[in-house]
Model the fold of this input.
Amino acid sequence: MLMKYSPSAIVTVVALTLIIAGNSGYGQTVTVIDANTDGSAAAKMQVLTPIEQRMRKTVSIDFKETPIEDVLRILSQQAGVDIVKSPKVTGPVTATLTNVPLSEALQNILAVHGFTYLASDNMIRVVLSDEVSVDQTKLTSKVYRIMYANVKDVAAALKDFISKKGEISYSQGTNNLIVTDSEDKIRAIDTFIKEIDRITPQVLVEARIYDISSDESLDLGIKWQAGRVGADIQQTVSSGSSTGEGVINNPYNNADIGTVGNTLVDSTGKSKTDPHVTGLFDSATNKTGSGDGLLRFGFLNKYVNIDALLKAEQKTLSAKLLANPSVLVLDNEEAYIKIVEEVPYQELSQTSAGGNIGTTQFKEIGVDLKVIPHVTDDGYVRLALKPSFSTQVATFGLAVPGTSQLSQVPVINKRETNTVALIKDGETVVLGGLKKKAINKELHKIPLLGDIPLAGCLFRFKGEQVINSELVVFITPYVLTRPVLTPHQIRRLEETNIIPPEANSPLILDKLKKN
Done:
């Protein structure tokens, strides 16, 4: 209904409507007059809830350093409404108000102390302002499909990140993460998960473990020296048919490297470039080492055929391949290669009745290698390495308490090292220096004659051979940015050579002819 009112008529109608309407079980009916721009007024009917009616009641107070509990109690009595406060709402109140609506009085008194109120259907709740902002925040739930990371680790990382009202759960079977929180938090979690749920690089670790041995008459050992490092140059053939040579004999001898250069000419007249093994040159003389049987390694670039290089030296230094395993491992995870033989022995113990009980125990001998690779952003691989090599050298008679018997326990010789290296993808790190000396004694004699006192020495021979050996480990990592292996890498992963080669194994040229 549309009517024209003067300003005084508007006030009269509103007051009259409030008096006539009174209270009802469903609320109070109030007529609200809105003035239009043309001077007319529109009357609207609005129904107030009981709590809204009481919030419009006027109150008058005069307090000075009065506890807020008492202030709220008096306001509750004047307005006829129940007021409940949080235990955190404390402190004195100083205020003077006259004929002010309850809603306005609460708003001004509580605001200056960092409090606020929430009106429900039948009462008013006074709380901290921070509690209201959290309580009134709209919560949103979102399901994340974790593709590469461990969902349990992601949930643990987000536990301290979500708000007090937020919740987080996960399903290990489906690798799903369920987060319930505010929209702002959900957006932040989106960014967080995009950063951590990425494809983790994988590293194919290829290891070659050699035991290089020789007697005292040979120049045995590995000479470690820092040499002049040049650019990686892959071997090529400039004339004639291409060959698959991976390593060639040292052409330099004692010549100055500066005058030789990279170009080599073999017996057939073919010209080729040196495969260039970094760390090959003596730092003092800047020349290569001379003499046969000297094995010198440092860091090898990825163009060197390591297998061929070792087999060429195998003839003079008796290098035995102990193992050639390959394993695929995630970035920052431990790869454990264990190729061992368990040696059984009897461990005797005495019973309470005086008898003996024998139990079978085992000791491990063989190769044990632990590798933890880490791929850096600039293409390098950080390798934490711990190789170990053990052999049985003898047995030891351990006395059994209370008896005269001996328990034969194997004596294990163990060699191990622990180091960290930083190399490029596809290059090789070499670990050496794990040396061992073994003395073999032999006796040759003519039966009977060799046992004659004094003169028997003419018919017998005693020999002693000192064998030195050194464990050398070659480790080459190949970084796989995607979980896809090339045919070559698959073959490397599936092939593991454990049987040592024979002393008269084919030389490098035999292998090159087959290629």
Observations:
- The CA atoms of residues 325 and 495 lie 7 Å apart.
- The mean pLDDT is 68.
- The longest strand covers residues 460-480.
